[in-house]
Amino acid sequence: MRVLIGPDAPLHEVYAAPEGPWLRANMVSTVDGASAGVNGTSTSINTAADKIVFDLLRELSDAIVVGAGTLRAEQYRPNPKPVVVVSRSGEVPAGFVGPGSGPVLLATCSAGEGLGPSTEQLGDHNVMVLGSHRVDLARMRAELVDRGYDKLLSEGGPRLLRDLLDQGCVDEVDATISPRLVCGNHPRITDGPPVDVPLSLTTLVEQDGTLLARWTTA
User: What is the pTM of this model?
Assistant: First the structure.
């Protein structure tokens, strides 16, 4: 990999987060802005370089924050790192409850229809009720930091990223540009009402046409 902008150092140092609480969002899209390819998921636009950084960011994180819809659509598997499932309905996708599911926390709201069953499955301590009809993501971040999860990694989806930006929770956006065009009406890396968030480019890495950028929020 070539570091085009940023420190000329090993990737662990290039992507190291500063001291203290830090939430970064990692997303991939094509040159024409699609966050999913022909199969409707990001797997068809991933590259080898993107996978290297994807794995590295997980290694550097204390917990992974993902929307329940993305867990289902991308067919996530349980992870050794704690997975924080953000679900307004209070439902946790199959495979993330019960034996072999790994450490799982639920961030939901009191109006969620699945709150009762999920609490029985996960236990009270692993369920964060953060608001009445929508998940208060700023409270979620503060609660996770209180639990010792300083370095948080959000992997989407687009609606969750938009809401995290809207609520001022994001410190860094790691955006991979895959060297392809897919055309069509594919989703973007954000979805929802407009939010204007200025960014500063701190690092740009390239490998085989894949561009991997670190942006910090102003």
Answer: 0.95
- In tens, the pLDDT along 8-67 reads 889 999 999 999 999 999 999 999 999 999 888 999 999 999 999 999 999 999 999 999
145 by DSSP, 3-state: which?
helix
Amino acid at 196: D
Domains of the chain with bracketed CATH: 1-62+156-218 (3.40.430.10), 64-149 (3.40.430.10)
Separation CA 23–CA 146 (nearest Å): 14
Exposed, middle or buried: residue 143 (CB in 10 Å: 0-12, 13-18, 19+)?
middle
CB 64 within 8 A of CB 58: yes
Predicted confidence (pLDDT) at residue 78 exceeds the cutoff of 90: no
Q: What is the rounded CA–CA span in Å between residue 2 and residue 209?
A: 11
Q: Which residues pair with 175 in a beta bridge?
A: 27, 213
Q: Which two tokens stand for residue 90?
A: 């209070």
Q: Give the position of tokens 């860094």.
A: 172
What is the spatial distance between Cα 172 and Cα 151, in angstroms, rounded to a whole number?
11
- Scanning 83-147, the segments in alpha helix (DSSP H) are 115-122, 137-146
pLDDT in tens, 148-205: 999 999 998 999 999 999 999 999 999 999 999 999 999 999 999 999 999 999 999 9
